[in-house]
Amino acid sequence: MVSLTLVRRDAINTVTCPHGRAVGVWSLMSLSLEQVVKIAPDDASVAAGKKLMGPANWQGLGHNTETLWGLCRGSATYQVKVDLGNLGYHCSCPSRKFPCKHVLGLLMLFAASPNAVSKGEAPDWLSDWLQRRRSREEKKAARETETAGPKKPADEGSQQRRAQARESRVSEGLVRFDVWLKDIARNGLASIENKPRSFWEDQAKRLVDAQAPGLASRVARWATIPRSSPDWPLRLVAEIGRAKLLLCAWQGINSLDPSLRSEVRQCLGWTISQADLEEQGEHVDDTWVVVGQWIDDEDRLRVQRSWLVGRHTNRTALVLQFSAGGQPFDESIVPGSEQRATLLFYPGTALQRAKYFKREGTVAAVTSRPPGAATIDAFLASVAEQLARQPWLTAFGAVLHDVKICPRNEAWLVVDRENRGIPLSGRDHWKLLALAGGHVFDLAGEWDGHALRPLGMYVDDGFRVL
Length: 466
Fold this sequence. Notes:
Elements: E1 3-7, E2 28-32, H1 33-38, H2 43-50, E3 58-63, E4 67-73, E5 77-83, E6 88-91, H3 101-112, H4 124-147, H5 156-187, H6 197-209, H7 213-221, H8 232-251, H9 258-268, H10 274-280, E7 282-298, E8 301-310, E9 316-324, E10 337-345, E11 353-359, E12 364-365, H11 376-389, E13 396-408, E14 411-415, E15 421-424, H12 430-436, E16 441-447, E17 452-459, E18 462-465
Parallel strand pairs: 9-11
Antiparallel strand pairs: 1-2, 3-4, 4-5, 5-6, 7-8, 7-10, 8-9, 10-11, 10-12, 13-14, 13-16, 14-15, 16-17, 17-18
């Protein structure tokens, strides 16, 4: 595997902003060519970036302990800059994609041919940009420090009235939704087998109007279930059953314990403020391995799903990031890397979703096997335990040790040492089979209760991003 080593400034005095985000500079970071591909906004950008990997497309290439730079020649000459402190970047081109093909091309070039980029002194146009970035970071940290102080007391009466108004609106919307579910049950699943996508989307829009966007997203996804597999009726009934359970939980919300009450509200679409998250969430310090990542495009919203595993705690975490209008994600999370960090887990009974609270130390390539389940039965037992705590979970991070994959009829299975198997999502896994080379390996992925989406593998003492 071709690797790229990015050297960061020594973090002697790392400063942490009030919300935990480190604004110091790190020491060492390793990226593979596959990992560079993962930060691209789409496949077209990857293809365009690869066309710029040749040194003939560049002039003035260079790097130092802080930055990587180059002038890309094309219809015009563009200044391309990468901050090795946090993988921030800038290009003078007018592209609306982030990162653009020029930034990707420069990173790919450095990954594939590091000797083509000489070490040197940064040009003035790069130094000016880096200085402005550092200045903005310092000003932002100062503003956050100021706003973290005492605030003007909120109008508790107004807040309470707004909260009661939303709860009333949600309750009214859920009553109408319950009638819709009963109509489906009364008419039978055969009546909805050929319903258009709008049948589900219209109901989802009604739930959005009722201020229950979390439940609306679930209902919108039901449109993909009918006729998707031979057992689609069972899958749809299970989803309807979970939705009915959520309605019952809302009706008795005041009798639930605080953690489960928080889960129900989050499932319906309530968000948690940063202040409440820091006060009620759980801080977990560990060396966190990014074992998998994929991006889901939902209309004009991109959702990045990153699965992390703690080396010492064996905890699994799901970090979600959202981007609208083609904007870059806030955090740079590279699959196949690991770093000492503190994660802040959202309050509730699931303790699955988390966000970075503080990142420190070295960001390095994964060179030893991540923690995981020894058998598939052990993994499924952990899934059952999570569902017992929170029955509305829809995805689970998985690292399966010592497995192999094999085709079975028109599907693929991942099989463990006990010859127990679960299906893989998708129909083409010949590349995964070839990478394994006939040997057992560790497979990381996302389990949705029906199939495992492969996201990464540990084989031959190295981690490969899928």
